[in-house]
Design a protein that fits this description.
This protein has 286 residues and is α+β, with helices and mostly antiparallel strands. It has a single domain (23-277), classed as Acetoacetate decarboxylase-like, CATH 2.40.400. It has helices spanning 2-13, 49-55, 109-114, 133-143, 228-234; strands at 20-24, 27-31, 33-47, 61-63, 71-83, 88-90, 93-99, 121-127, 151-156, 160-167, 170-178, 182-186, 190-196, 199-205, 207-214, 221-224, 244-255, 259-263, 280-284. The strands form 3 sheets. Strands 3, 4, 5, 6, 7, 8, 12, 13, 14, 15, 17 and 18 form a 12-stranded mixed β-sheet that branches. Strand 5 (71-83) and strand 6 (88-90) form a beta hairpin. It is globular.
Length: 286
């Protein structure tokens, strides 16, 4: 079985090299960026649809609405262990959206379920902190991702996955996800929307893995700190508890360049920290 998985992994990354070498700021790297192994976990919350709609950089971008009329806010954590640009941490805050088509509380369940299999689905990246300045410069330079540098301390145990994020002494947030849920093979790409120089960029990221999804979220939570990024999340009136958790026991990803799909959109630069170097620690406990 392990040999079969290794062959599938090798096939997944085949024909990605040689790539294209690019330089943005302190980062020189080869496209596409390859993600061989990571700890990936996250939570889904509801948020105020009106407030989230006002954030959108394009009038063609529409938050996915749930039956209760609220939108979705996703907060995830990546502990990248093996990549083509080295190890680092990342905590995205994103809004699942559909580009070019409005959803209603009666129809939003379909794109929420199908994700990137649904036309126009993607995640509008609100914040994307990372632990390396090179990852920040690469993300902002190539894709316009709203990246900044922050400290991240991961703790991975057989029962749960967690991360605490700070900017120096300022606490941004903690995320904790319990290991539970049904196993689902996930070969759907991850689609993101970002803004660079008032251009809306759509990036389709092939991925291959297995995830565990649970609607039982007891013990899984996000705790917001006292920081401008935490305040911006809090301002979306997100629910106190998540409605779904997910983590990937195994996953690989391929991050290519994106494509410009609209020009003249509103700026979506996000927060900029003063850090150039950050802490990235990982503790594996029993």
């Amino acid at each position: 079985m392990e040999r079969i998985r290794m062959k599938e992994k090798n096939r997944f990354f085949s024909n990605t090299r040689p790539g294209k070498t690019v330089t943005w700021g302190s980062a020189t790297f080869e496209l596409p960026i390859l993600y061989y192994r990571d700890d990936l976990f996250g939570l889904y919350f509801t948020g105020d649809a009106k407030k989230i709609r006002e954030l959108m950089p394009s009038d063609q971008m529409h938050p996915i609405l749930l039956p209760n009329g609220r939108a979705i806010v996703a907060i995830f954590a990546f502990n990248y262990m093996e990549t083509s640009i080295g190890a680092y941490g990342e905590i995205p805050v994103g809004i699942p959206v559909v580009y070019g088509k409005k959803t209603t509380p009666f129809t939003g369940w379909l794109p929420a379920l199908l994700e990137s299999s649904y036309p126009g689905f993607g995640v509008c990246v609100m914040h994307l902190p990372v632990t390396k300045a090179t990852a920040r410069d690469a993300g902002r330079g190539e894709w316009g991702y709203s990246k900044f540098v922050a400290d991240m301390d991961f703790q991975i145990t057989p029962e749960q996955l967690s991360c605490s994020m700070h900017e120096n002494d300022a606490h941004i947030l903690d995320i904790n996800v319990m290991r539970r849920g049904i196993h689902i093979k996930d070969n759907k790409p991850l689609t993101t929307y970002s803004v660079k120089n008032h251009q809306l960029i759509k990036t389709v990221i092939p991925q291959q893995g297995v995830k565990r999804v649970s609607l039982v979220t007891h013990g899984s939570c996000v705790t917001l700190g006292n920081h401008p990024v935490a305040d911006s999340i809090r301002a979306l009136d997100i629910s106190e508890t998540p409605f779904m958790s997910v983590y990937y026991p195994e996953r690989g990803g391929i991050l290519p360049s994106g494509k410009i799909i609209e020009t003249g959109v509103r700026a979506f630069d996000g927060y900029m920290s003063e850090l150039e170097e950050a802490r990235h620690t990982v503790s594996y406990g029993g």
